[in-house]
């Protein structure tokens, strides 16, 4: 069984964290069934966020009686100390706990530091002093913020997208965390649904002994697969290496990761799906995307007012309006 220790925190868990974003989409009782099964299957690291609507509440609802056997991680998107305290107190109440093991700044576009005028880092330190959080982390999609956070020495963990489509620059971040003994939590190990071979994804991450993947779980069959990976970790063999090489070729360059940081769109375009429709059509069963509902959604791209809100907020520096246009044209051709 493979275990991971997060940097210097002493948090050692199965190489299998539960990403609690997708449980927003199921009922409280369905969420409880999944969370209990995960816990009973050996998962002890649960990662949620104040921004994931009722996810913190579902964790409290499902796991409060076994709280002392778990590590809970959550996040705040607060921009100032007041927002930080409000989010932290809400999270504690909803998760029915008096401490959160790892509290993370949720994808800020800068690296919070003491004295930066936001009061965020000072608030986190005070929360730690009061015993309301045990460790301070940061999540990010931006290479420069991630690097600054590592070098600052202020953070116990970094949560960053990492999957087998990673670039050399992403790998540099992963390796730097190892060198500096900062816990590395891998998000988007399935690249927002574009990677459909979870076995290959797990075999890739298995090569990095300091990396803790958190898998977004919505269905029981997905959970079963991830639990199996801990019992029998997939290993990188020639077949998986060849598959990854082929996928890297197909998905190279600037593709949309479906992260949603470009929203909201004033033209109501569902950017995270629409900007990667060409890939979804070819990599997933295409029928649902070709139904009338999706045809109408794709046609909304025509209503783009070129405000550039999306491209200004895309952490991958994509020219989102152009990418949407390309996807619409391809979609129309595909439909024919
Ligand atoms: S540029 Fe177009 S797609 Fe992007 S946010 Fe504005 S309206 Fe929406
Ligand atoms: S366009 Fe950029 S910000 Fe929007 S979903 Fe895709 S990758 Fe994320």
UniProtKB/TrEMBL annotation:
PROSITE patterns: 4FE4S_FER_1 (PS00198), 4FE4S_FER_2 (PS51379). Pfam families: Aldo_ket_red, Fer4_17. InterPro entries: 4Fe4S_Fe-S-bd, 4Fe4S_Fe_S_CS, AKR, AKR2_Oxidoreductase, NAD(P)_OxRdtase_dom_sf, NADP_OxRdtase_dom. One of its GO terms (molecular function) is iron-sulfur cluster binding. The keyword Iron applies. Transmembrane segments: none annotated. Residues 294-326 form the 4Fe-4S ferredoxin-type domain. Keywords: Iron, Iron-sulfur, Metal-binding. This is Aldo/keto reductase. It comes from Zongyangia hominis. The lineage of its organism: Bacteria, Bacillati, Bacillota, Clostridia, Eubacteriales.
